[in-house]
Amino acid sequence: MRSIQAAQITQAVADLFLECSYCIGDDVRQAIDDAIKTEPSPIGRNTLQQISDNYTIAANERVAICQDTGMSVVFAEVGQDLHIENGDFEEAIQQGVREAYLQGYLRKSIVAEPLFERKNTKDNTPAIIHTRIVPGDRLKLLAVAKGFGSENMSALKMLVPADGIEGVKRFILETVENAGPNPCPPIVIGVGIGGTFEKAAIMAKQGTALPLDHSNADPRYKQLEDDLLREVNALGVGPGGTGGRTTALKVHILYAPTHIAGLPVAVNICCHAARHASQVL
Amino acid sequence: MSTIHLTLPLDEKTVRSLRAGDAVTLSGAIYTGRDAAHKRLIELIDRGEPLPIPLEGETIYYVGPAPASPGHAVGSAGPTTSYRMDPYTPKLLARGLRGMIGKGLRGPGVVDAMKQYGAVYFGAVGGAAALIARSIQESTVIAYPDLGAEAIHRFVINEFPAIVVIDSLGNNLYETGPKLYKEAGL
Ligand code: SF4
């Protein structure tokens, strides 16, 4: 049995949120810089250049890439042979979020209750925590800072089996086209297919935080990812939604077994400020 | 792309000369406002009470900035999605608001009011928040400090980069732009 201190988890979570709020991943930066060379729209190229320059300024000055520093989501994989000492696991994560947002000049964007008062919690907690117990004695943390301009443009639909591949594609393309400029394209599209209502949504969220060079291991789903990326970019939405061919940087599909009567599809859209970072303790 | 350098506040003639797709920079003073601040302004208008900010000729920026770190006038400050302000906007345009800066779609009610009163909707690059913050030289809270990042701030800006997205004729770059690049048959 291996042990770690709850305080180590707090420290790791704080570091991850600070890091991803200031420094975009190399994969996203590279994809934006590549797109500057291929984007046919002059306004679109100018938008991409501003996005790229913004990444540089944020990283150099250690300021937030975007003022919407998001709702904090943490995916935790806890090894079943790991013992967490001197503190509550979930509270350790919340404390990490609190420290990052209070000390890192990140915006506090969370309201305690959604409908009646909408009172700000003033420290960006609570984070959404998804935990799995896995073999081993390690703790893997994935921190995702999810902006809501793109979250609000996400969609979930319970398709039926007869809708098939074409139905799935149509729903994804419609979702992106209806979103237009709102989710700050170029976007990363996470798609969850199968499972139940909530399983599809969680897979879609995981899809938004995969590295851009990752593809589905099943060649049929990889093909679908590639086809969808091409078709999304043919919609013409473009950088900032003002027209162009760089609408999405990647489509990531995750799938799961589902019921004989169902075909749930969730589309989670993430903006070019695709902020996530992970660490193994 | 050539750039038009605009000085704020804007007069009707200048606003009516701008066209969707024009690249501009904005210099002068603007006011910030998001959902909560808009709601309060409209409540004052409906009760016939005075407003905490002038509207005639002014420009509102839809933004909730990040906190300023030491050595910065303001934290990262890119645009938020504008459609959330749509229910409130026509009443502000009727009172002389000339410019809005945000990102994303606007509803037909807003576009109609823009045509009627002569107003312009500027798009700033969503997410380019640290870059945009460099053009903001001063930030002062003018009203509703209890709203935190959503309080109304007065920003003094210099060469703030933007694009005319919807002009006073109702031309809309979010419609014309994508049409130009949409592949045939889709
Ligand atoms: S959608 Fe993303 S890039 Fe756009 S304002 Fe929100 S967090 Fe920032």
Describe the structure.
The complex is a heterodimer of chains A (281) and B (186). Chain A is α/β, with parallel strands linked by helices and 281 residues long. Chain A has helices spanning 6-22, 26-38, 42-61, 89-103, 148-151, 164-179, 197-208, 219-233; strands at 2-5, 71-79, 82-85, 128-134, 139-146, 155-159, 187-195, 248-258, 263-270, 275-280. Helices cover 40% and strands 25% of the residues of chain A. Chain A starts with a strand and ends with a strand. Chain B contains six helices and seven strands. The model of chain B has no long low-confidence stretch (mean pLDDT 95). Chain B has helices spanning 12-17, 35-47, 89-94, 108-117, 129-133, 173-181, and strands at residues 3-7, 23-32, 59-61, 99-102, 120-123, 136-143, 152-166. In chain B, helix 2 (35-47) links the parallel strand 2 (23-32) and strand 3. Chain B is globular, with a radius of gyration of 16 Å. By secondary structure, chain B is of the alpha/beta class. Chains A and B meet through helix 3 of A and helix 5, strand 7 and helix 6 of B. Iron/sulfur cluster sits between chains A (66, 68, 147, 149-150, 183-184, 271, 273) and B (78, 126-127).
Strand portion of chain B: 25-35%
Rg of chain A (CA only): 19 Å
CATH superfamily of chain B: Fe-S hydro-lyase, tartrate dehydratase beta-type, catalytic domain
Distance between the termini of chain B: 29 Å
Please state how the strands of the largest beta sheet of chain A are arranged side by side.
4-2-5-10
Overall pLDDT score of chain B: 95
Helix content of chain B: 25-40%
Largest interface pair: A-B, 50 and 48 residues
Order of helices and strands of chain B: EHEHEHEHEHEEH
Multimerization state: heterodimer
- Radius of gyration of chain B, rounded? 16 Å
Shape, per Cα inertia axes of chain B:
globular
How large is the share of residues in beta strands of chain A?
25-35%
Distance between the termini of chain A: 14 Å
Associated small molecules: iron/sulfur cluster
Number of domains of chain B: 1
